[in-house]
Amino acid sequence: MSGAVAVILAAGKGTRMRSKRAKVLHPICGRPMLHTVVETVRRAGAERIIVVVGHQAEEVKAACAGLDVEFVLQPQQLGTGHAVAQAEPLLAHYRGPLLVTCGDAPLFRPQTMADLIECHRKSGAAATVLSALLEDPTGYGRIVRHAATGRLLRVVEEKDATEAEAAIREINSGTYCFDAPSLFAALREVQPVNAQGEYYLTDVLGVLVQAGRPVEVVVAPEPREVLGVNSRVELAQAEAILRRRIVQEWMLAGVTVVDPDTVYIDPQAVLKEDAVILPFTFIRGRSVIGEDARIGPHAEVEDSEIGAGAVVERAVVRGSRVGPGCTVGPFAYLRPGTVLEAQSKAGTFVEIKKSVVGPGSKVPHLTYLGDATVGKDVNIGAGTITCNYDGFGKHPTIIEDGAFIGSNTNLVAPVRIGAGAYTGAGSTITRDVPPGALALERAEQRVIEGWAARKREKSKPQEAP
Ligand code: UD1
Ligand code: CA
Predict the structure, then answer these.
(1) Pick from 293, 247, 290: which is nearest to 266 by CA?
(2) How many CB atoms lie within 10 A of CB 38?
(3) Which of 15, 94, 265, 402 maximizes the CB count within 10 A of its CB?
């Protein structure tokens, strides 16, 4: 099933999106639509992928950095046929199957495309087009078949269709497999004589049929796969389909998703067996959710690793690593560079940035830790703040193993709290505390006996004389 080359058409503006941004760069499930298409064709067996760029070519190329694809420029958007023709110089000596698809069709399953390539190879056709039967074919090219034989005659675009043709419910998915030399030869015969004045790729099929070459049609098993995104309404529909599919795959792989309708999992995320995802939860980017971890309700985990058995409840976790058995939240915010080691805790109204919290250490409530390194079995009292920023630079705080930070301590960085040391509640610590010591920084308490009664007496409203 290997050895195919794929061409992805991505040069169009996407006028119907009404956007400053090229259509193929609009995100779907957390990444540009085009990434999804590139991944699909690669998984379908494409060993070489050529992306035709034009509108916002530089932005599209930049967005594909690291995807291992080649680019060819279509300087003017003269139609899908013209777009494919631009790839010819790169394929001069190529004789195998050429998969062609659109950058605005992100819902194809790799298997559907792999089956298309396989059918094409087996039949030895000059072209094989993937079609679908839709309840509402509006907007798509229609598959016109011979009344008697049922063989494909041509594809007609909606704007060029007669009333009878427009009534056809079998549509062109925009994905094809071609014999490369036959495709490029046929493209030379395509003329822009149609309602849009464009060079239609679809006309190639009619040209090949006219020349007596074998052209096959494969009907997509799941019609929703062919949905092309032309407007933002269709973008949302496509995202909903893709999202549901991803969630379903994880459920089949052993993850519990209590309410699939309110769970969002990006395609690059990985979830381990018996993880539980509670409602209104987002697993974004390249996150990894460990075995038996429980995420949600109302949690957002982005580009983070959550260890086995950890609990993340009503929290936002970005660019962080949460160790096994940790608890995060409710109402915690872990910012990039945070590491919670095994069995540690970031509790209620806690914000942690670029800090390491050692194994078994607890940050239970109302705390900000920034640029801190916390050892093991440390307790951080409620209201503790690392004062890590002096208006010019960020400074580190080090809290060694077994230290006890009293409630409402301000740790003015750079500062180090030695192993097993204590800070008194309410202290502002500006100097290092040696191991085992108590650091206390607060005014002596004064007690003024009888003060309250005198205050009340003085403040009483005076009676009128
Ligand atoms: C196209 C097909 C239609 C099919 C539908 C499936 C043609 C003529 N029509 O219509 O039969 O049912 O897809 O979704 O092929 N593009 C370029 N350069 C261009 C024009 C377009 O690269 O000059 C790219 C676009 O970026 C897009 C793709 O080709 O990714 C399809 O173009 P679009 O204008 O959306 O074609 P449709 O009208 O949807
Ligand atoms: Ca389209």
Answers:
(1) 247
(2) 22
(3) 265
CATH of domain 232-439: 2.160.10.10
Instruction: Report residue 8's pLDDT band, with 50, 70 and 90 as the boundaries.
Output: very high
Could you identify the atom of ligand 1 that is nearest to the CA of residue 104?
30
Q: Which protein residue has the closest C-alpha to ligand 1 atom 6?
A: 174
Residue 86 CB less than 6 A away from ligand 1:
no
What distance in Å separates the CA atoms of residue 400 and residue 340, rounded to the nearest whole number? 15
Q: Is the CB of 102 under 6 A from ligand 1?
A: yes
> Beta strand pairing status for 127-133 and 362-370?
unpaired
DSSP secondary structure string for all residues of 4-52: EEEEEEE----GGG--SS-GGGSEETTEEHHHHHHHHHHHTTEEEEEEE
The amino acid sitting at 45 is G
Does domain 4-226 fall under CATH 3.90.550.10? My reply is: yes
Q: Where are the domains of the chain?
A: 4-226, 232-439
pLDDT digits (tens, 9 = 90+) for 195-208: 999 999 999 999 99
Residue of 15, 21, 102, 144 best suited for mutating to test ligand 1, as the one with most atoms within 8 Å of CB: 102
Task: Please give the mean pLDDT across all residues of the chain.
Answer: 97
CB crowding 195-217: b at 16 or more within 10 Å, else e = eeebbbbbbbbbbbbeeebbbbb
The rounded Å distance from CA 230 to ligand 1 centre is: 9
**Atom 35 (ligand 1): residue with closest C-alpha?**
230
Which of the four pLDDT bands, split at 50, 70 and 90, describes residue 1?
very low
Q: Is 365 one of the annotated active-site residues of the chain?
A: yes
**Encoded tokens for 410:** 């301000």
pTM above 0.70, yes or no: yes
Ligand 1 atom having least distance to the Cα of 103: 30
The reply to whether ligand 1 has any atom less than 6 angstroms from the CB of 176 is no
Q: What is the pLDDT of residues 228-281, one digit of tens each?
A: 999 999 999 999 999 999 999 999 999 999 999 999 999 999 999 999 999 999
